[in-house]
Amino acid sequence: MNYLEAIRSALDALRANLMRSILTMLGIIIGVASVVAMVAVGTGARERVMEQIRSLGSNLIVIISGSVTAGGVRMGSGSRLTLSEDDAIALEREIAAVQLAIPQQRGTAQVVAGGLNWSTLVLGVTPGFLEAREWGISSGRNFLPEEATGAGKVALLGETVVTNLFPEGGALGSEIRVRNVPLTVIGVLERKGQSMNGQDQDDMVIIPLTTSKRRVLGTSQANARAVGSILVKIREGEDMDLAQAQIKDLLRQRHRLQANQDDDFWMRNLSEIAATRDASSRTLAFLLAAVATVSLLVGGIGIMNIMLVSVTERTREIGLRLAVGARPRDIRAQFLIEATTLATIGGAVGVVIGAVGAHVAASLAGWPTLIRPEAVVLAVGFSCAVGVFFGFYPAQRAARLDPIEALRTE
Amino acid sequence: MAAPLISVRDLVKDYVMGGEPVHALRGVSADIAEGEFLAVMGPSGSGKSTFMNLIGCLDRPTAGAYRLAGEDVAALDGDRLAGLRNRRIGFVFQSFHLLPRATALANVELPMIYGGLSRGRRRERAMKALARVGLADRHHHRPNQLSGGQQQRVAIARALVNDPSLILADEPTGALDSRTSLEIMTLFQELNRAGMTVVMVTHEPDVARFAKRVLRFRDGRLTDDRAQVPADAAALLKELPQEREAA
């Protein structure tokens, strides 16, 4: 008896009790559908997190000028500019793990180009910034060294700024005015999209730090070298925690902080935040897998139950088949294939329903969903395995029937 | 004379039922030659069904020898017994045992599925077998669309289809009225005339009279074995008034 025929006869047998077959499949269908839908949503969410990590640039630590304690009153972070350009230079020079340390000055400004204007973030940085953020230039070029050191009147624009100020194009080479300072657009940045906290990373004008300090955002009277934050990129393969500790020690030493004093800066490991989110979505995936296992288990038990009923109901048929020459293993194969067909069809239907469900959820709730082909194969394969596993006992029982007894059954 | 088709010697079968040992057969010896039409009779509990199950390779004897067409059956394992049933024996049962959802054709094809024949060959041979029992035009009917007599004919076609050495019929007319019984017996006699060996278990003398030889069982022993001149079922059928509609 070849397999194709066996499957055909299994389908016949399942059609004979259509309602019962469908109800039995329901367990598997619901299990697989919910898993496929939720995995789709989960994978989509993970994909988004991974994208955010990528857009951030990897191995980044941001150091923010921190709270100073003045007479027992602890001021908020950034309340005084405790960091300086020299700190950045020292970090790069003295800590081997630090690949780049970019001093940053940020401020908001109205940017004017032609008849249009736009309020955006102005970021004064050193030229290594783009490398640290792994941010490419879609057209134009980065700052030249002399522009970086000599307060060149140049700017790089984010995609959002370009669309708002140059809707007709032609941004490159044009002149913009930031706080009345005329700057030439020397480059347009590649699109980055949203950051993790929903900020548009493309809504930004990047200028040399020197330009920012001398011409645009200005400096504090107390310390012309002061900056709001330093972006640190750790070399690939270095231990982030160790590097962080070294940075902390160096900065405390440079800032002459006593052992009993709080840090006057904050450090944030950006990749870590993203990784935490990734980990939480992984936890969710584990939870889903657990739910899936339970529902497939329940579905499988349902199949076993129905197959046992079927074996009892069809004892006469089994007896007859044995009498006309079926070997016990033919009978076992028949019932095993029936159970597996039941489970596999259930799995396939579940995948379809799950995919549709995920699609609906995606369009209604705006979640990104992603259905990987391997997830589909896994779902169908797993339900097939459930069929084999839970079908085996009933099939074995059918195969062990005594033909004489079976023929005599009413 | 050639070796008998069936040869049993001192066949013993014991089994346990409800904790009580039952001696179903207490040493039975018999030979059945090719081309015989044999009726096995006896009251219930006489061992005739056990004898039939052993002959039909559905069961193995506790002791004794059984040779079917020269093959020592007692030594065979389950799979070989299944093969033997498939090739050598055609079963006909009192309650027909047709698959209710399959057509007559599919029912007749069933033994060939386990014989490993191709679809085309199966179809061809099943149609031929159905034609032989006079049901070629009903091949696509399901059992519930057929009369009792027709259902039994389908079952006989199924028994014939693998061209077996013998047909084993267990109370083949037990569920049929007397006219239909005659029709079935006519069919058996025709098949026998064409060379088929038929062994039929029955408790009705009315049915046994169509056999050429009758074995009688009592308490697990063969008590009587005699040849007889069979009644002609076809002739008896003609004498019946033609009141019934066509089968």
Q: Which helices and strands occur, and which strands form pairs?
A:
The complex is a heterodimer of chains A (410) and B (247).
Chain A: H1 3-16, H2 18-56, E1 60-65, E2 69-70, E3 73-74, E4 83-84, H3 85-94, E5 98-113, E6 116-125, H4 129-132, E7 137-140, H5 145-149, E8 154-157, H6 159-165, E9 175-178, E10 181-189, E11 204-208, H7 209-216, E12 226-227, E13 229-234, H8 240-254, E14 265-269, H9 270-313, H10 315-323, H11 328-365, H12 373-399, H13 403-408
Parallel strand pairs in A: 6-11, 8-10
Antiparallel strand pairs in A: 1-13, 1-14, 2-3, 4-12, 5-6, 5-9, 5-13, 7-10, 8-11, 9-10
Chain B: E1 6-17, E2 20-32, E3 37-41, H1 48-55, E4 63-68, E5 71-72, H2 78-88, E6 89-92, H3 104-115, H4 119-132, H5 148-160, E7 166-170, H6 178-193, E8 197-201, H7 205-208, E9 213-218, E10 221-227, H8 233-239
Parallel strand pairs in B: 3-8, 3-9, 6-7, 7-8
Antiparallel strand pairs in B: 1-2, 1-4, 4-5, 9-10
Helix pairs in contact in B: 3-4, 3-5, 4-5, 5-6, 6-8
Rg on CA atoms of chain A, Å? 33 Å
- Fraction of residues in helix of chain B: 25-40%
User: What does the average pLDDT of chain A come to?
Assistant: 85
Q: Could you say what the CATH architecture of chain B is?
A: 3-Layer(aba) Sandwich
Query: Helix share of residues of chain A?
Result: 55-70%
Oligomer: heterodimer
What is the number of helical segments of chain A per DSSP (H or I, 4+ residues)? 13
